[in-house]
Amino acid sequence: MKGRLGREYFEELYAESHDPWNFETSDYERDKYRRTLEVLGDRHFERALEAGASIGVFTEMLAGRCDELLAVDVSERAVAAARKRLSGRKHVVVERRTLPEEMPDGPFDLIVASEILYYYTREEMLAALRTFERELARGGVLLAVHWRRETRTYPLQGDEVHELLLGHTRLHNSKTIVEPDYRLNLFEDPA
């Protein structure tokens, strides 16, 4: 089994490219972001957490639905870019954190984990799930979205992540979308 992809891996990627996954220009990303927001419906969130915010492209889209939004990423370079992008939004805070070890205190009524959980080993991903569940507000929402195409670089594949989530969470799975390129699950606290 491959080990976790850590901070050094991501710092190197962002040193080579400001936008290593083409978040700003990719049709795939644009479609995924649109569908992700659609799944949330017309909900508005008091306090949200975006894990793995990268350069803040989706963060910027999500910000209008939140009274407070904490966006975190493991890469200092990505955090600097996201802070610049979101500098005019006083209700958005961007921090460099390594999750799940540096999980911020909740409660959060929305936690977004988009294309982050397959960078962990199985045990680390389940530990991240437990921290998300612990910091999720009563009645809160966990939204997970991951790339489905096979990659030999990551410790887990996207479908593996979602099967682990479904098999190990106390949360209710209220929505599933399976596209050729990505998979989305919306989990809700049954409170």
In short:
By secondary structure, the protein is of the alpha/beta class. It has six helices and seven strands; from the N terminus they run H-H-E-H-E-H-E-E-H-E-H-E-E. The chain has helices spanning 7-16, 27-39, 57-62, 76-85, 122-135, 158-168; strands spanning 45-51, 66-73, 92-96, 108-114, 136-147, 172-178, 182-188.
Q: Which band does the percent of strand residues land in? A: 25-35%
Oligomeric state of the chains in view: single chain
N-to-C series of helices and strands: HHEHEHEEHEHEE
Secondary-structure-derived class: alpha/beta
Please estimate the helix content.
Answer: 25-40%
Strand-helix topology:
Blueprint: H1 7-16, H2 27-39, E1 45-51, H3 57-62, E2 66-73, H4 76-85, E3 92-96, E4 108-114, H5 122-135, E5 136-147, H6 158-168, E6 172-178, E7 182-188
Parallel strand pairs: 1-2, 1-4, 2-3, 4-5
Antiparallel strand pairs: 5-7, 6-7
Structure description:
- Helices cover 34% and strands 28% of the residues.
- By secondary structure, the protein is of the alpha/beta class.
- It has a 7-stranded mixed sheet.
- Helix 3 (57-62) links the parallel strand 1 (45-51) and strand 2.
- Helix 5 (122-135) packs across helix 6 (158-168).
- The radius of gyration is 15 Å and the shape is globular.
- The N and C termini lie far apart (36 Å).
- The relative contact order is 0.16.
